[in-house]
Specification:
- The protein has about 425 residues and is of the alpha/beta class.
- The chain has twelve helices and 27 strands.
- The strands form eight sheets. Strands 25-26-1-27 form a four-stranded mixed beta sheet. It has a four-stranded mixed beta sheet with strand order 2-19-21-20.
- Helix 1 runs parallel beside helix 3, helix 3 runs parallel beside helix 5 and helix 9 runs parallel beside helix 10.
- The longest helix is centred in the first third of the chain and has 13 residues.
- It binds shikimate-3-phosphate (S3P).
């Protein structure tokens, strides 16, 4: 499948985007090992979270689906998971695989975790190292990629782990394994990363400490189920924000979006580029802060992007590259090496995509300089990566001519209804068979 996008007029509109991917994964996993029923509303029925749903069912957790976005997880209790009959196929989802590895490292049974071609080429050494140090036995392919064979049946002991990279997935894997370990498990991180795991554990009654950035918990604590209202995903809202910002006259309100401060780097960066972004009706939804986000067309300027904000905007760099391409002047990104091990090498994928639309991009090992100006029409490759596909499609709304984005099926992993959403604000986008 491919997108065909033609130059569009974005108008005044109010939209919603689907539920938060990170929160949806965690609601299923934590609900699955809690005591009692976890009612989830606003669940993201995208392929990534559906892979986690399927895996939890295979691990013996009963999940009732009342509708695509309303589920009830019947918690099996901390020690209630059972051996799955098959390998757990986690599709395209790094979050599912890394968090699941943490959850399964201390179980009494063995499991095998696998995924699609992209996931099976992503680095898992980053979780194997700490989990092995806790006493788990996990085998991967020789280059540290999945499938992962988790032996199970081993006793885990708490450790302190100083994360070598800013990764919420690694932090969460260690903390989840820590629930099954003897004693205290703690981590420190080089930069703050999303804290949905800590928040949800806390709202399920687990005592999670954070003293001076050292995040820890005692093993053996039981989780008490609670309702989880999933906010709309800021990472999906970011594509709509971009569409409004780079348009001529757009004024778009996106309702009920998660604004957890460990996720809002994209708002800070776009504001620093001159973007008009206002938070309205700030409130909380369970453990997470949310707001309606109003975005108005703005003349963006390039500049140096604060490297301190990278971990708080880690999934939004495809959006930011397109913002930079339409801005005046050059935009310099640094400290973004982690993007090379996402669903695709996102520095390379965005650089190639923007170049195909006439934009000059100078790439380095862990950064890029995007020369702002105009986008031309052209044909670009998504590299099978949902966020590359969506970012380049939004760029197409303001390009000089039609932009064709190839290989866009992966958009279903995180943003079902992306095209309809863009159309509802005036975007001219169609889906064609490849
Ligand atoms: C996620 C953490 C991030 C992010 C991913 C979701 C999570 O990955 O890129 O989309 O839900 O914990 P890293 O922890 O590898 O940075």
């Amino acid at each position: 499948m491919r997108f065909e996008v033609t130059p569009s007029r974005i108008g005044d509109a109010t939209v919603t985007v689907p539920g938060d991917k990170s929160v949806s994964h965690r609601a299923l996993m934590l609900g699955g090992i809690a005591d009692g029923r976890t009612h989830i509303s606003g669940f993201l029925a995208g392929e990534d979270c559906l892979a986690t749903l399927d895996a939890m069912r295979q691990l013996g957790v009963e999940v009732e689906t009342h509708s695509a976005t309303q589920l009830t997880v019947h918690g099996a209790g901390l020690n209630g998971l059972r051996a799955p009959e098959h390998h757990l196929d986690l599709g395209n989802s790094g979050t599912a695989m890394r968090l699941m590895a943490g959850l399964l490292a201390g179980q009494p049974f063995a499991t095998v975790l696998t995924g699609d071609e992209s996931l099976n080429s992503r680095p898992m050494g980053r979780i194997i190292t700490p989990l092995t140090r806790m006493g788990a036995a996990i085998e991967s392919d020789c280059d540290g990629t999945p499938p992962l064979q988790i032996s199970g049946g081993l006793r885990l002991a708490g450790i302190h782990y100083d994360l070598p990279m800013a990764s919420a997935q690694v932090k969460s894997a260690v903390l989840l394994a820590g629930l099954y370990a003897e004693g205290t498990t703690s981590v420190t991180e080089p930069d703050i990363t999303r804290d949905h795991t800590e928040r949800m554990l806390t709202s399920m009654g687990v005592s999670v400490s954070n003293s001076g950035g050292r995040i820890g918990l005692e093993g053996g604590q039981r989780l008490k189920a609670c309702a989880v209202d999933v906010p709309a995903d800021l990472s999906s809202a970011a594509f709509v924000m971009l569409a409004a910002l780079i348009s001529e006259n757009g004024d778009v309100l996106i309702e009920g979006v998660g604004i957890n401060p460990t996720r809002t780097g994209v708002i800070d960066i776009l504001r620093s580029m001159g973007g008009s972004i206002e938070l309205e009706n700030e409130r909380t939804m369970g453990a997470e802060p949310v707001a309606d986000i109003r975005v108005r067309a703005s003349a963006l300027q390039g500049g140096l992007v604060d490297p301190e904000l990278v971990s708080l905007a880690i999934d939004e760099f495809p959006v930011l590259f397109v913002a930079a391409a339409t801005a005046s002047g050059n935009t310099e990104f640094s400290g973004i090496g982690e993007l090379r091990v996402k669903e695709s090498d996102r520095i390379a994928a965005m650089s190639a995509g923007l170049r195909a639309l006439g934009v000059q991009v100078d790439e380095s090992a862990d950064g890029a300089v995007v020369h702002g100006g105009m986008l031309s029409g052209g044909v670009v490759e998504s590299q099978g990566d949902h966020r590359i596909a969506m970012a380049l499609a939004v760029g197409g709304l303001v390009a000089g001519d039609t932009v064709v984005v190839d290989d866009v099926a992966a958009v279903e992993t995180s943003f079902p209804g992306f095209c309809e959403c863009l159309r509802s604000i005036g975007g001219e986008i169609s889906i064609a068979e490849q």
